[in-house]
Amino acid sequence: MKNTSCTSVSFDFTGRFLPPVFILVFIIGLVANGWGLKTLLQKWKKLKIINVFVLNLGLADMLYLLTLPFLVDYYIRNRQWIFGDAFCKITRFCFNLNLYGSIGFLTCISVFRYLAVVHPIRVMGRLTVTHSVTISVMVWLLVGVQSLPDMFYTKTSGNKSGTCYETTSTEHVEDYLKYSLGWTLMGFCIPFLVTLGCYGHVIVVLCRKNTTDKVLKQKCLKLLFILILLFSVCYIPFHVLKNLNLRSRVLSKQKLCSEWSNGVYIAHQISRGLVCLNSALNPLVYLHGNEEVPAQLRQQLQRAHQMFSRLLPSNSGSVPLAQTADEVQHM
Q1: Do 129 and 47 meet the contact criterion of CB atoms below 8 Å apart?
Q2: Residue-level pLDDT, tens digit, the chain, 331 residues
Q3: Which of 127, 208, 219, 275 could be cross-linked to 238 through a Cys-Cys bond (beta carbons 3.0 to 4.6 Å apart)?
Q4: Distances in Å between the alpha carbon of 133 and those of 139, 142, 166?
């Protein structure tokens, strides 16, 4: 680390990497979450406790996905934001609601599974859909309160087509680093430890009880795998690298240059692409949380296969199916 003029970080990587990722996530996430939400809403009167959390998880994803076209435009224009300061803050706020809302609802799902498996008799009949709705409202409020201070930091450079900062300008970067560390602790570390503790205990209980339903054990293991995937790929790298990048900016502002600053910046941009994948990966919870979704998916695939089978003979010049069946009967 040297006390000299710092080499400026190259931002070219961001413009090349993020737009394709955002476009891919937007397409996959919109289709998967739209289909999942439609499936849940069709069974609105039969919603189970865990499905309420899954429904809110999908709403959080849709909220963020609708902002991605504007971010794609921003990075394609070489980080030129043309939609105004207010909408820049709203866009970043939606990202934070999605990120920490997703973590919150995944934590709720983990706690519910823990209670259902480890303390089934105590919670039987005591947990209702009304309770899950109340808890969901509390999660939204808590995430909103945690994310609200972010909107009071400078988000644009002040020009009509300036930068839309993911965090804030260099002028306030020291204060933002302190806020980010506290936010990481409250919004990520504590829910992550709760989730880890719940599923660690659940797996121990399932392994000890030989009489435990094998289907229940498989479902819990599948959900554990999904959560490990989400936290390992999406959430952990983002929070670590976000704070390291902020620390690098603080040092750069103080003219204390570090050799790892450019590498941390690139790694952080990759983690930003990975963290937005949570909106495309969260629908995996639909498959686990709603027992009817896999069956409906199989039905759709069977219908598609039948339609393809009917079209294929006519397109290839084959004899119609009805005629072929009559000939077989007379053979």
Answers
A1: yes
A2: 555 556 666 778 899 999 999 999 999 999 989 888 887 777 766 667 788 898 899 999 999 999 999 999 999 998 899 999 999 999 999 999 999 999 999 999 889 888 888 888 877 777 888 889 999 999 999 999 999 999 999 998 765 568 899 999 989 999 999 999 999 999 999 999 999 898 888 888 877 776 556 776 777 777 778 888 888 889 999 999 999 999 999 998 888 877 788 889 999 999 999 999 999 888 887 666 555 555 555 665 566 667 767 766 544 444 443 443 343 334 3
A3: 275
A4: 10, 14, 31
Q: State how far the Cα of 82 lies from the Cα of 126, in Å rounded to an integer.
A: 51
CATH topology for 17-298 is Rhopdopsin 7-helix transmembrane proteins (1.20.1070)
Output the six-digit token pair for 250.
């603080």
pTM of the model: 0.83
Q: Where are the domains of the chain?
A: 17-298
Token couple for 134: 């109340």
Cα angle: 146, vertex 139, 175; to 5 degrees: 10
